[in-house]
Amino acid sequence: MRAADLPFIRRSRLFALASEQDLAALLATCFVQSLPKSTTPCQQGEKPEFLHVVLSGRVGLFGESPREAALIEFFGPGDAFILPAVMLDSPYLMTARLLEESRLLFWPAAAFRAQMRVNGSLAYGATLLLSSYWRALIGQIKDLKLLSAIERLSAFLLALAPRQTGSVTVTLPGGRRLIAGRLGVTPQSLSRAFAALRPLGVTGSGRNVSISDPARLRQFGGGGVLPDLLGRR
Amino acid sequence: MRAADLPFIRRSRLFALASEQDLAALLATCFVQSLPKSTTPCQQGEKPEFLHVVLSGRVGLFGESPREAALIEFFGPGDAFILPAVMLDSPYLMTARLLEESRLLFWPAAAFRAQMRVNGSLAYGATLLLSSYWRALIGQIKDLKLLSAIERLSAFLLALAPRQTGSVTVTLPGGRRLIAGRLGVTPQSLSRAFAALRPLGVTGSGRNVSISDPARLRQFGGGGVLPDLLGRR
DNA sequence: CCACGGCCTTGAGGTAGGTCAAGTCCCGCG
DNA sequence: CGCGGGACTTGACCTACCTCAAGGCCGTGG
């Protein structure tokens, strides 16, 4: 671990309440590593050996079935994956894959669980993190059950945009294929959904999408059920 | 609060680590109430005033959109709803409705948040609870994205069944309409899904369903992605 | 320069599941 | 006993999305 990592570590909500000495004690058994794109620190079905905290970069969590895999959620700096599996010492329900080169904190699972029991500030930080994840997942389930593909895309784009009036440009957290998985559609359908939103002022190519009139889009999408999705960062 | 409530309170994983004196201090500001079927302690969009813990009975959490409402999850004894909203002091993303007469613990939101900060055993219990909820939600998202309606029903039934060989009878946690919402289909489609599973040995009416050969059903459903869903109880 | 392989888009057609509309069963109540 | 209403089922039809297939676009490498 380098001294330069500390500020990034501090930034995670896991350590929201941790004092300086807390932090030092907690991190005693941890190490930090940079890993290239496409490595998979967690494999669905395996037992966790480490809790991983993203210091920089981006990670995708994928649900896998015999037939296919679907992106469930994007994780970025400050996020811990996959805390519930580590906490309950249960097999991963998802596979994590780095979407770009990323710097990760590795925290041995047993040490993490032990510290959770004795360090209240750590447990508190964990509830903060888990609470925001809960809300993101609930939002996603509501979207899947209540909204059409086009509405889901609309809500997703709006969740990415800073809350403001007037034209905005947002950067997608991944290629179209990943976004499609996140929204629960095929890439083809996502493409059609983008086409359907074009008349409503959604344009752009690649990872940049600009929304000419967020208010209009918002009222179309029924308000967008998605919560602060990435606002937690 | 009655003395008779204490054993039910203790049973919640929220208090897994709490000592006797911890518990007494924590509960100082709480009260317990029995409420009839169909009351809604939480309304989507409102700010939380209380954390609710189910002592007995059953509660449904519903996502609401302008058009319709869908059941997201069933909650039962030991579950706390909706902890993330209380923790983050954010508007509820769901409406809670009692599915039958239930006994609930009411915990003033501000007091709960304050105690979370200072009482490590409480925060630890909260991470336990939130961790199991995370896994249930991930399972549900995976099912929605990767499985067909019939496979989702199959997985759901298997998750309800005790892990054993030979014929099992499970009791659905609600009427068909609720189950349909939980699985993300209409009641009509659920009915058709049940019909489709009949040749595979799924029979029964009302809230009782019997599975003649769970193993056969399991291999059909691709293994059923759902985790311990209700196994956390 | 062209060839090649991702990645995205577009088109055409099929299908799972939604919608609308009966119909049946069951239960409470007069 | 008959009636009325809710819950569930079944049928017929429709549509949103998937599947399969054919291009465009663009970066990399010969």
Keywords:
233 residues; alpha+beta; 4-stranded antiparallel beta sheet; 3-stranded antiparallel beta sheet; 40% helix; DNA-binding
Mean pLDDT of chain A, as a whole number?
91
Shape of chain A: globular
- Strand proportion of chain A: 15-25%
User: How are strands sequenced across the largest beta sheet of chain A?
Assistant: 1-7-2-5
List how many beta strands of chain A DSSP finds. Answer: 10
**Assembly of the depicted chains:** homodimer
Radius of gyration of chain A: 19 Å
By DSSP (H or I, 4+ residues per run), the number of helices of chain A equals 9
Order of helices and strands of chain A: HHEEEEEHEEHHHEHHEEH
Unreliable spans of chain A = 222-233
Largest interface: A-B, 48 and 49 residues
Largest beta sheet of chain A, briefly? 4 strands, antiparallel
Give the end-to-end Cα distance of chain A, rounded to a whole number of Å.
23 Å
Helix residue percentage of chain A: 40-55%
Question: By helix and strand content of chain A, what is the structural category?
Answer: alpha+beta
